[in-house]
Design a protein that fits this description.
Elements (H helix, E strand, L loop, with lengths): L1 E5 L2 E4 L16 H18 L9 E7 L2 E3 L3 E9 L17 E15 L2 E14 L3 E5 L3 E4 L2 E4 L3 E6 L24 H4 L6 E7 L3 E3 L4 E9 L2 E9 L6 E5 L9 E5 L2 E15 L3 E5 L3 E8 L10 H5 L8 E8 L3 E6 L15 E9 L3 E3 L4 E11 L15 E3 L3 E9 L2 E14 L3 E5 L3 E6 L4 E6 L3 E6 L42 H29 L1 H21 L7 H20 L8 H10 L4 H19 L6 H21 L2
Parallel strand pairs: 4-11, 13-22, 24-32
Antiparallel strand pairs: 1-2, 1-6, 3-5, 5-7, 6-7, 8-11, 9-10, 12-14, 14-18, 15-20, 16-18, 17-18, 19-22, 20-21, 23-25, 25-28, 26-28, 27-28, 29-32, 30-31
Helix pairs in contact: 4-5, 5-6, 5-9, 6-8, 6-9, 7-8, 8-9
């Protein structure tokens, strides 16, 4: 008697009975029923008891030799009693690999009366450093027991010619992610790849680099999703406005015709000098391949893996762009103005007053507008030498960024409210702003003309010019006039018309209703597991987030992200009433969509989970402020999920 369940698909074979039954016993229906009962009794008595194997854990890496900037998968297989098993703890391999994504698959076998269940975790990484490396033991805890795998070896070599576009080879056969293997899909490296282009590779600090990501394909890509967005550490990024759905076009490349779609276009402004690296973009594309096949048309296993019996099918494939190296030159020291604030581009500054003649203590608006090319989003407030006779309020900021081909232009406006407190002609000196012009490799200064304002009338004492919030009582002989109506009470009102009477009368009924509601709540907590998990979800999440906040220390970065990820995953499992172990992104996305969660919330929540996984398994340097901001973001996502999923 055999049964197998793998990746949620279950197939069974019924018992065939005793092959030595005499054929004559089938002649009588009553005799057949009697013998069937006897055989079933003997079969159950002789069947070994259903047992679970002791917990074992093993790890392997596929492929063992991977090209630079290509993907490999670390498979961790856990076999035995999985109910009390925790998530595996991976060693730190951030020195030569970058975390991309994770998944899992389950398998259940029932052979000769012995039950075996296993759960395989698959962690996908991108190789970033050449050499031979050892991936240390993977740790798994079950109660007080601790299990470890043997170390595994991996070699990262230079990618051979034609493969530098970063395609991943799939993991080991038989797992859920094996469909990402390009060889199994019959798609070559030149038929589907992600190209990154930059208009410059050497720029000055603050000078924009236009980076464009294009998907080239000669096969049918039915859908795609971004597994990892390109990293922009060390840059200020401004994305170009692109259509929500990429518009494909035809393009010839190296003598071959491709369908090309621009997926992302962004302007990167380097914030500091030195060698900068833009991390690769990682896509998962679903490719539909229809090609003749010589395999067995009755291969049921291939049918259940979403492949055509006659060749082809749909295949998830991972596509990775190349890292982008940018050389950022520092600002030259020669000729640097004292008021230079680090802006590169071509700026123009204008200023104006809405009035040139006012009475003393009347408000006037000064508008300063900065326009031109450059990263105006990072522009600070200009330094203005206002006369001492002016009372100045903080400016109102507004602005806009515009794209004109490869040029990034825009404007920023600063509006000041000024109140002259003394009569006379007041002069606002010229407003200057220095910037670096990369075209001429020199510093320039944009300057306005001086502005004059005539204030007429007599100077008013400072007390008369107080704002509304500063008014205070100076004497007792004059008081402010009341403008609100007082509340009146009818004379001679009966006692039963008083609000207090009805409050005392209805209070016992309200208490009884509250007690009944609380009793019903306790009964549901004991009998309804889903209700109990949802009720305790917020309390447990707050406790876990508080524990994560206690780990806000760069020296405890791995533990912090592990605790935050545990809080996110536990809250999601409690809200959806599903087990946390083996939960994958696709399953969570489908369940959240069924519950009516918005797409923006789903993407943000799953991105938080992916960030926690990435920082756990391939951590990058993070400051305490970045960790605190991420914790606030995770808490906000959980709050929004609690509002949308009821």
């Amino acid at each position: 008697m055999n049964g197998r369940q793998e990746s949620g698909v279950r197939s069974q074979e019924s018992g065939r009975g005793n092959p030595h039954l005499p054929s004559s016993s089938l002649s009588s229906p009553s005799s057949a029923s009697l013998r069937l009962c006897v055989n079933l009794f003997l079969f159950g008595a002789l069947l070994p008891p259903l047992t679970a194997q002791d917990l074992t854990i093993s790890a392997n890496v596929r492929p063992e030799i991977v090209g630079l900037n290509q993907q490999f998968v670390l498979n961790v297989e856990v076999t035995g009693n999985l109910q009390q098993a925790s998530q595996p703890e991976l060693p730190d391999i951030g020195s030569f690999a970058r975390y991309v994504s994770s998944g899992s698959s389950t398998r259940f076998e029932f052979i000769n009366g012995r039950a075996t269940s296993s759960l395989t975790y698959q962690y996908s990484f991108l190789a970033t450093q050449e050499g031979k490396f050892e991936i240390g033991p993977v740790t798994l805890r079950q109660g007080s027991q601790e299990y470890k795998t043997e170390p595994v070896q991996i070699t990262v070599a230079k990618a051979p010619a034609g493969s530098s576009r970063g395609r991943s080879s799939g993991p080991s056969p038989g797992l859920r992610m094996d469909r990402r293997d390009p060889a199994s899909a019959g798609v070559s490296e030149d038929e589907l790849f992600l190209q990154v282009n930059a208009n410059k590779r050497q720029v000055y600090q603050g000078e924009p680099v236009i980076v464009e990501y294009k998907l080239y394909t000669q096969v049918n890509v039915t859908s795609f999703s971004v597994l990892t967005a390109p990293g922009t550490a060390g840059f200020w990024a401004e994305d170009f406005e692109l259509p929500s759905s990429p518009v494909p076009h035809r393009e010839a490349r190296e003598g071959r015709l491709y369908t090309v779609a621009t997926l992302k276009k962004t302007a990167l402004f380097p914030t500091s000098p030195g060698k900068k690296t833009v991390d690769p973009m990682v896509l998962e594309c679903e490719v539909r391949v229809l090609r003749p096949s010589r395999r067995d048309p009755f291969d049921i296993d291939r049918f259940f893996r979403n492949r055509s019996l006659f060749g082809g099918g749909r295949f998830p494939m991972t596509v990775v762009s190349k890292p982008l190296e940018i050389d950022v030159l520092p600002f030259p020291d020669e000729g640097r103005p004292s008021d230079f604030t680090g802006i590169s581009g071509d700026l123009r500054v204008t200023s104006s007053l809405d009035k040139t003649q006012v009475r003393t203590n009347d408000a006037v608006t000064l508008k300063v507008r900065v326009s031109g090319e450059g990263n105006l989003s990072a522009l600070g407030e200009p330094e203005i030498g206002f006369p001492d006779a002016f009372e100045v309020y903080p400016p109102k900021l507004s602005g806009k960024t515009e794209w004109q081909g490869e040029r990034i232009t825009g404007w920023r406006s600063f509006e000041y409210v000024l109140i002259p407190r003394a009569p006379g002609t007041h002069v606002i000196p010229p407003i200057s702003m220095s910037y670096f012009d990369p075209a001429s490799r020199s510093y320039r200064t944009a300057r306005t003309d001086e502005l004059r304002l005539l204030a007429e009338g007599e100077a008013i004492p400072a007390a008369a010019g107080r704002s509304r919030g500063e008014i205070r009582q100076l004497a007792q002989d004059i008081r402010f006039i009341k403008t609100d109506l007082p509340s009146f009470q009818p004379h001679g009102m009966a006692f039963y018309q008083a609000p207090a009477f009805w409050l005392v009368t209805l209070l016992p009924l309200a208490a009884l209703a509250g007690a009944l509601g609380y009793r019903r709540h306790l009964d549901r907590l004991l009998g309804d597991e889903a209700y109990a998990r949802k009720r305790r979800a917020s309390r447990l999440a707050k406790k876990r987030l508080a524990q994560a906040r206690s780990l806000l220390d760069p020296g405890q970065q791995k533990e912090f992200y592990a605790e935050t990820g545990h809080a996110l995953l536990g809250f999601l499992g409690d809200k959806l009433n599903i087990a946390e172990a083996g939960l994958i992104s696709d399953q969570a996305r489908s369940l959240l969509q069924e519950k009516g969660a918005s797409q923006e919330l789903i993407d943000d929540y799953l991105d938080c989970l992916q960030t926690c996984d990435r920082q756990r398994f391939a951590p990058s340097e993070a400051t305490q402020q970045e960790m605190s901001d991420f914790l606030d973001r995770a808490a906000q996502s959980m709050t929004q999920l609690d509002k949308e999923v009821r």
